[in-house]
Amino acid sequence: MAQPSQEAKSYWNHSCTKATKGARARLKEYHHGRSQYTEEALKEAEHVKVQVIRKAKALAFREGVHKASLKPTGVWRLARWGRERSGKPKELPQFPAIKDGTGGKATDFDGKVRALRRTLFPPPPRADLEDIATARYLTPLELPQVVTRDKVKKAI
């Protein structure tokens, strides 16, 4: 069985999909031919979609609470969630500590930047300049560098 993605919504069901497709169809109709009728149909479809999704979210939450109440530790986990995370925004993702190339770990922002710069953009290798004195180069081509209006118009 395939694993759901991180973007998958646990509350999403067939009615949410149906309401979303209906709202998208009304939006296409509205863009195709703007009229008061299509605008009202779009508003109604968007309203229905919001209501269906709200209902699905509430139902999924109630089912989650019910499942938590069936286990002895579930109620306590739910209580801790209510104290610590309920109603708060999700924490922003944090870039983990990384090896800094000297055997240590970079934990602060500047250290991580230096470590990534060293790893991803190493300094270029030194060029061997010993053979420059004996190198023979072909004579360069002489090309006129005059740009005229006609050349610009022709290029466009």
The Cα radius of gyration reads 32 Å
Taken from the alpha-carbon principal axes, the silhouette is: flat
Structural class: mainly alpha
**Average predicted local confidence, pLDDT:** 87
Strand segment tally: 2
- Spatial arrangement of strands, main beta sheet: 1-2
What is the CA-CA span between the terminal residues?
Answer: 55 Å
Q: Give the topology string: H per helix, E per strand.
A: HHHEEHH
**What is the percent of helical residues?**
40-55%
- Strand content bin: under 5%
Are there runs of 5+ residues with pLDDT below 50, and where?
none
Describe the largest sheet.
2 strands, antiparallel
Q: How many helices?
A: 5
Helix and strand layout, with pairings?
Blueprint: H1 14-32, H2 36-70, H3 74-84, E1 98-99, E2 105-106, H4 109-120, H5 149-155
Antiparallel strand pairs: 1-2
Helix pairs in contact: 1-2, 2-3
Describe the structure.
By secondary structure, the chain is mainly α. Among the domains are: 14-84, no CATH class; 92-122, no CATH class. 54% of the residues lie in helices and 3% in strands. It has 5 helices and 2 strands. The protein has a two-stranded antiparallel sheet with strand order 1-2. β1 (98-99) and β2 form a beta hairpin. α1 (14-32) runs antiparallel to α2. The longest helix is centred in the middle third of the chain and has 35 residues, at 36-70. The protein is flat. The two termini are 55 Å apart.
Which tags fit this structure?
single chain, 156 residues, mainly alpha, two-stranded antiparallel ribbon
